[in-house]
Design a protein that fits this description.
1 helix
Length: 153
Amino acid sequence: MNRLLCNITILLCVFSFSVISCQKAPVYTAYKDLNASMWYGSDTVLFSMPKYIGDIDGELSLGVRYTSEYEYRNLALCMSLYEDKILVRRDTLRYVLFSDCDEAVGSGAYFRDEQLNVGQVTMRHGHRYSVRVHHLMRKDPIVGIKNIFVNFK
């Protein structure tokens, strides 16, 4: 009986390790705080990514952390990806931050996070990559956006 219990325990450990190891860990994650929670459309948030050894394929996503001070339901951002200071991709991202009932959509308690996938990206060996973000909202400045974050995995 003890041998059977020991074998079951070993199998559970091996299974747990294989499930954990299959989840893809982020290659790069960074957060940038916005100055005094006021974000002007002319203020660009810059993320400088490190050089990688070898080519890396991954999913790039961009997120926002916001509070109830943000007064609109949606947020429009322009995300630009540069390789060695040359623009390789530009996307307009539209976030829905509050529902029709004015309830925050993102996860979290006081600060809410909402993240959108930009898409599949290849970071090539020996090149420098950067992500630049600015808002496209009509009102300037906007209030209630605390952080912008980039995730590449």
